[in-house]
Amino acid sequence: MSGIQKVVVAGGGVLGSQIAFQSAYTGHDVTIWLRSEGSIGRCRPKLDMLRGAYHEAIEDMRGAKGEDDPAWCAGISDFEGFDADACDRRVDQAYESLVLELDLAKAVRDADLVVECMAEVADQKSAFFSKLAPLMPQKTIVVTNSSSLLPSQFTKVVGRPDRYLALHFANSIWKHNVAEVMVQDQTSQDSFAAVTEFARSIRMIPLPVKKEKAGYLLNSQLIPWLLSGLDLYANGISDPRSIDIAWTMGTGAPKGPFQVFDTVGLTTAYNIVEQYQRVPGIATPLLRKMMLPYNFKGMERVLKEYIDAGKLGRSAGEGFYKYDKNGNVVE
Amino acid sequence: MSGIQKVVVAGGGVLGSQIAFQSAYTGHDVTIWLRSEGSIGRCRPKLDMLRGAYHEAIEDMRGAKGEDDPAWCAGISDFEGFDADACDRRVDQAYESLVLELDLAKAVRDADLVVECMAEVADQKSAFFSKLAPLMPQKTIVVTNSSSLLPSQFTKVVGRPDRYLALHFANSIWKHNVAEVMVQDQTSQDSFAAVTEFARSIRMIPLPVKKEKAGYLLNSQLIPWLLSGLDLYANGISDPRSIDIAWTMGTGAPKGPFQVFDTVGLTTAYNIVEQYQRVPGIATPLLRKMMLPYNFKGMERVLKEYIDAGKLGRSAGEGFYKYDKNGNVVE
């Protein structure tokens, strides 16, 4: 047992709503704190959608051959002892049990854990943490789900350095059930252990990150790889298709770097290239130095050409590849 | 048509024998030049083994559902019009047709293409090329299959800069049918086109590398990724299993960096770390600079600990993971 039962998720965006839903699904008391009636109006359809997505996933899991089956969602159930009807009931119970709250003081009054899922804007996070700090009871642990901002940036304003760390999720957490648990310098072992146990209790595989690291474990590997592929193209060494084939045929991975760029969108790709050069605090000094010798100007030029031509990636019908209306590559 | 019919493969090692076999299988006149009777004795069993491997692959292909089927070997046949019996006959014809030759002058007398597959030792390659240079007719194109040495290192000794480039294969080329075609500064467009067409004629997907690049397309992506994973462990940020899970769950790839290290062997991993720091000429200046801020000392320490303990990777039964006698992970 993690000792964490009462969970407050601050922010009802894509991941906030998923984390709230998954926590409720696994039997926690969950409140979603939202800033305004407008936020409530945007959050409710996400929860409706999630209820549907969980039910659909459970339906697909009925036909699965094992945990390795692509349809299997380890966030929903173990393969052994899978009871689809019981899972369906838990989904509806989770949906009914979620509390949406505008009053932050009321929301966090007895919270064991606050999961910060606000927009990735440093000022907004700071403002939220300063408002939050005086309202929490002594026991509350605070985690941030930020992908791109280092938790240490907010330690002071959170005001309880030993009970503050990062808990970072993938998208579609009922299926991609990993959670990176990352400390900042002052996080206590107890808080780290409690959050790790909490991650397990909501059916995530906890991945420990024992020192603060920009990019956690996944992006720390993903970005050097993506940029190494883009660098080959920007320097005229080869073309996107050939670079992708070299990777997919050479490693058995489903996608090469340009297929990933098309999936996440070229605007995001451009932002990654920009951020890793400029914004202080996003990359560790090590990561920034490592990236600098890349031909960033060339990468920006390539991406900008595509973006200016409206080739924004798969969702726009064209990026480095062309897609039909079902999102399959044509040509 | 590539205009390349008479092929000489210099060296009968793992890749030399595969390239020779595949070229013969696709109807080329192939001679394998070997340095000594001892080399012939080591090469013959490889060719016997390849004949068996091709026949087995063809047998497995009979049950395949399409080109995406894992059993399909695109180096052996297209899916449409696949005729297993005809393929089997071509395998036996290829095997019978291969000429093993000790006399280099005789071997290359009328060669359209010489494929250099000697050991990855610069002095040995230089010695071979100086011996080869005066023996070839005007028309012969020379390619090197070197993975780790840049072709430009040998341009002078090869002596025909316009007809000299690199052609780099993956292992098990009948299945992993890609070939990186890489120029050096002085390679002519005609030679590049002829070798690209030759690659196609032996059923490889040619991947153009239009400027000389250490690591070609695959290793240029693979090494930054592998080192980014190892760096996380060397710096105490997380453990091999968690770093691997972050990658495989996050990208859908079959293996994380430590699973790849265990597969290629930790001694090879150690050599990669060593080479990218020290040996001049292996990495481009760009790549060397890019790598330097990594914690190489830490990486070496980690790998050396495992190697000294006999944990050399999967083939040794233990590396970063433990394996049973079938090569499956235990624990």
Automatic annotation (TrEMBL), chains A, B:
Site positions per UniProt: Important for catalytic activity: 168
Reaction catalysis annotation: a (3S)-3-hydroxyacyl-CoA + NAD(+) = a 3-oxoacyl-CoA + NADH + H(+)
Any GO molecular function: NAD+ binding
The EC number(s) this enzyme carries: 1.1.1.35
Involved pathway(s): Lipid metabolism; fatty acid beta-oxidation; Lipid metabolism; butanoate metabolism
GO biological processes: fatty acid beta-oxidation
Protein name (record): 3-hydroxyacyl-CoA dehydrogenase
Lineage: Bacteria, Bacillati, Actinomycetota, Coriobacteriia, Coriobacteriales
